[in-house]
Amino acid sequence: MTVKLWKVKKSSVHGSGVFAIQDIKKNSKIIEYIGEKVLKAEGDKRSERRIKKFLDSKTDGSVYVFELNSKYDIDGSPLYNKARYINHSCAPNCVVDIIDDRIWIKSIKKIKKGEELNYDYGYEFNKDDFNDHVCRCGSKKCIGFIISSDDWNKYLKHVSNIIKKRKS
């Protein structure tokens, strides 16, 4: 029997979030990200439609299409996919682990009861649209935008160049 480790409730980060209902050990599989398996081209279309639909919204506009592999995505927009409510953090306590074409959210440290679950969404830095993805994680490591930690140096270089241009 699988023990439920989480519940969805209001989050100070963005709308709803997923919270631990008991202490969770490091390296625990917590929840599966589920939905409709679609070809990547269809996943891209669905993402674009959702972005356009909620372009000016401060509260809606989340895109729930998750890259499974180079050929398929998972459209996690159905309401039964509670993992879609896990928010981004610049200092995450979880990571995505894809095992046998299933997307799992797994703890990377001990998580205390009541703590919000989060992971790095892994958005690539794009100087043309990074401003569209404001981060509200509130961590001490927050850089202000939802950008993969792998791309933080690209972001910092971009900002540094802007500052240099303004000073000259």
Could you explain the architecture of this structure?
The structure is a single chain. 18% of the residues lie in helices and 25% in strands. The chain is an alpha+beta fold and 168 residues long. The relative contact order is 0.18.
Q: What are the defining features of this structure?
A:
single chain, 168 residues, alpha+beta, Beta-clip-like, 2 helices, 10 strands, 25% strand
What is the assigned CATH homologous superfamily of the domain at 6-122? Answer: SET domain
Ranges where pLDDT stays below 50 over 5 or more residues in a row are: none
Radius of gyration: 17 Å
Q: What can be said about the biggest beta sheet?
A: 3 strands, antiparallel
Distance between the termini: 64 Å
C-alpha geometry? globular
Q: What structural class do you assign from the helix and strand content?
A: alpha+beta
Helix content: 10-25%
What is the helix tally? 2
Oligomer: single chain
- What would you say the CATH architecture of the domain at 6-122 is? Beta Complex
CATH topology of the domain at 6-122: Beta-clip-like
Number of strands: 10
Overall pLDDT score: 86
